[in-house]
TrEMBL record:
PANTHER family: D-ALANYL-D-ALANINE CARBOXYPEPTIDASE (PTHR34385), PEPTIDOGLYCAN L-ALANYL-D-GLUTAMATE ENDOPEPTIDASE CWLK (PTHR34385:SF1). One of its GO terms (biological process) is proteolysis. GO terms for molecular function: peptidase activity. PROSITE patterns: PROKAR_LIPOPROTEIN (PS51257). Residues 1-25 form the signal peptide. The keyword Signal applies. Residues 31-65 are annotated as: Disordered. Keywords: Signal. This is D-alanyl-D-alanine carboxypeptidase-like core domain-containing protein. The keyword Signal applies. Residues 125-254 form the D-alanyl-D-alanine carboxypeptidase-like core domain. It comes from the Bacteria. Residues 41-56 have a biased composition (Low complexity). It comes from Brevibacillus parabrevis.
Length: 279
């Protein structure tokens, strides 16, 4: 990428890359409102048509779960939008074909005690409690190995994703936005289970080259031990719908993460295989 780009171009470029997966463009930090006082904090998710979704389901994401639902069993049509029925499940699959309920807010968002490359107290610091604790353990282990990590972008509300999307439409046009940006509800960051991670080098932040850095290699080797997977793998674009993103970590719980990383599978393929195997 052109290192001499202007700030304005950097914003556009960052949007172009980052919104492919719903990963955030860091250059837009100051432009966006991230608090949403109009939405109640709570653990009851209601779908757009008013249907209560069952957030009381067990959230166990480990491979000891007694039943593996197929992807087809965890999706329902809500006003024409294929919407997941298990938003609080640690194994929830959100992608271009599977949206979260528009008003879904994770029930237990907290801020992990890890380094961030910015000072603002914004929602993207947050993750769900279990994921946040696991991220702290991951970062501590990295530090012990001499690897310095930063948490760049975690939770993103539907409202924030909508603002990002609309900004993209305004700056790039509707057609371009449809082709390149993450539609609100379809960003994994809304689950509170994802975190974009970087090293100290800003040049490789949210760039594919991060995968070749010591930090990126360390993450690929060790993230599974702490319950995280590299969600968007190289060569699996047809399955995930997204380009390779060595910086985008998704928490699924330790047992499942170890299995997935050892097998080199996408979350989609892993869950499909599990559901098929039990039949
Ligand atoms: Zn991301």
């Amino acid at each position: 990428m052109n290192k001499n780009r202007t700030n304005g171009l950097a914003i556009v470029a960052a949007l172009s890359v980052a919104l492919l997966s719903g990963c955030e463009a860091p250059s837009l930090d100051g432009l966006l409102s991230t608090n949403n006082p109009s939405q109640p904090a709570g653990n009851t998710a209601t779908t757009a048509d008013g249907t209560q979704t069952n957030t009381a389901e067990p959230t166990a994401g480990d491979s000891s779960r007694s039943k593996w639902a197929s992807l087809a069993e965890t999706i329902q049509d809500v006003n024409g939008v294929p919407t997941v029925t298990n938003p609080t499940d640690l194994a929830v699959v959100v992608n271009k074909k599977r949206a979260l309920p528009a008003d879904y807010i994770p029930p237990d968002l907290v801020e992990p005690n890890v380094p961030f490359p910015f000072d603002e107290k914004v929602e993207k610091r947050m993750m769900r409690q279990e994921a946040a604790q696991a991220l702290e353990e991951l970062f501590a282990a990295a530090k012990q190995d001499g690897i310095e990590l930063y948490a760049v972008s975690g939770y993103r509300s539907y409202k924030t994703q909508k603002s990002l999307y609309e900004t993209y439409v305004q700056t790039q046009g509707a057609e371009h936005a449809a082709a390149y940006s993450a539609v609100p509800g379809k960003s994994e960051h809304q689950t509170g289970l994802a975190m974009d991670v970087s090293g100290a080098d800003v040049k490789t932040r949210l760039e594919e080259s991060f995968g070749e850095m010591p930090e990126g290699k360390w993450l690929a080797e060790h993230c599974g031990e702490y319950g995280f997977v590299i969600r968007y793998l190289k060569g699996k674009e047809d399955t995930t719908g997204y380009a390779y993103e060595p910086w985008h970590l998704r928490y699924v719980g330790k047992d499942m993460a170890k299995d997935i990383m050892a097998a080199g599978l996408t979350l989609e393929d892993y869950l499909s295989a599990k559901a098929t195997a039990q039949k």
